[in-house]
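Protein of interest.
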Amino acid sequence: MRFVNVIRPGILFVLSLAMLVSCTSGKMSTDEKTKVQGAMKVFVDDKLAKDSNVYKIEDKSGVFDYLHEGVKKSGDMHVSCADVKVDNDVYDIDYYVKKENGKYTVMKEVLHKINKEEINRTLWEKE
C-alpha cells in the first residue's frame, strides 16, 4: 500500500512535466509573431473601417484599445487578444490566426472575457 502512495505522486509529476513541455514547445520566431499580429491588425482595422471606427460586439459598440503583445500557439493556429472598451467595461477579444498558402489570416474572433470574467463565446468564424 505504501509503495502505491509513493509511485502515484511520481507518475503525476512525470505526466505534469510532459504536459508542460508539450504546451511550451514550438517557440515561434519574432518574424512569425510579427506576421500573426499583422494579420490581427488588418482584421481590426477592416472591422473599424466598416463601422466608422466603432468596434461592434454583438449588440454593443465599443472603442478599440490595443492588441496585447503575447502570442500563443493553439493547435494549428496562433492566438492573441485585444482589449475593447464598452462603456465602463473591458472586453478581452481573442483572435485565432492561421497560416494558409503562406498568408496569415484571422479565422475566428472570440469574446474571451468581460472585466476578467471568463465568457469564451465565438463572435465570428471564417467559413
